[in-house]
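Hello forum,

I keep getting stuck at the same step: I have a sequence, I want structure tokens, and every attempt I make locally crashes halfway through. Rather than fight my setup again tonight, could one of you with a working pipeline run this one for me? It's a single chain of 464 residues.
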Amino acid sequence: MRRLLLTTTLLTLYFSLLTFHSHAQSLPTILKEQERARVVDDILEDRFENLLPQLMRREGIDMWVIISREYNEDPVMRTMLPSTWLSARRRTIMVFFDPSVGTSGVATPGAGKPLDKLAIARYDVGTLLKGEWDLSSNPDQWDALVKVIKQKNPKKIALNYSKHYAHADGLTLTEHTELMEKLPKEYQQRLVSADRLAVAWLETRTEKEMAVYPMICRISHQLIQEAFSEKVIQPGVTTTDDVVWYLRQRVTDLGLDTWFHPTVDIQRADATNFDHLRTFAKRPGQQVIMPGDLIHTDFGITYLRLHTDQQQHAYILKPGETDVPDYLKRAFRQGNRLQEILTEQFKSGKSGNQILADALAQSQKEGINGTIYTHPIGLHGHAAGPTIGMWDNQGITKGDGDYPLFENTAYSIELNAAVKIDEWNKTIRIMLEEDGYFDKNGFRYIDGRQMDIYTIPRKIEYVR
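Reply #2:
Ran it on my machine without issues. Output:
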């Protein structure tokens, strides 16, 4: 009992010291709430004023109607609410109208005219959407919407329903039913799916967003480096769950959010098979981290409405070791090469399915046993855009896999390389994930990528 109490006391002191030292580590500036709100609203105004008109004209949509009720918000509407609106209010209806777009999708000479941005509500939505519901003339909110539609007389009325994209399928059955009861048949015939427009809105990153995204990715990277260090991990004592909850608590203490529960897992020289099912569906319970382990994390944060998604590795040095074994370094290089093979296939207009097939073909030529499951990232973690493989499907993904690659879009380059390690008499998986950006200049990582496995403990300069 005395030994147990001593161990508990030491562990409590140990984790208290970890918290102290970890918080002392320098991180990029994290803005206060009021400053964050200013940045969010500035980015949103830029997206409304400069991006949305381009996308509506590209997709040939002259009216986009988005309808939600409080606490059951359309995924697109949530990205359009000002910083001080944490949810929709009662029923919120947004209407975006562009008089310059015809049914052909070609803008008329009046294309420079700003969009009409209206809220069929009793008040303005922030400073950007003007409230257009006059109860004295239209006591019913649906009548107020129909009045606007008749006044604008759009050629196409886009609504958020989609077979393949949950992000673009936010119109509920009730809202659709009530709209159809009020909308004249003449205008019902003009209804179209807004899925392409909704995906374009969600996937396209602006210059203002890309100015802040690198620091968001840097924060996430540094938190992983912090968690995967001797500041947090004491071999033989610390468990995988300890590291997971350290990350969760650290993010909370910084005033940030995680958009999924992090994971930490172990590969080691034992008989355990480390396959997809273990990685994605049947993770083991907490394990004690030991010398000689290759550990891996999957971690992401949300900040300024943008998301990160990263996977990295660290190796626990055995007594007498000063570096990662060469056989693990060689395996890691295969993972890095698979990243390059994939991003070399990024070309405007190629579908996610085409990119996947071409990358897998090249990896096979180079003798790399790769699995690719890359997804867009931005306003959501698993965001809208082209799906490039799935962990349980390395063939064609219908719908979102057919969607083409556009410029000014961001991706989480997620994949793994299965490598036979003779020294362990087993196959391991180098599982990597890093956030990148594609534009007219090609693909680049937003804050670089892991090129070497971290060591725990880290090397100390001048100590040999």
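The chain has two domains: 33-203, 208-456. If your local run keeps crashing, start a new thread with the error log.
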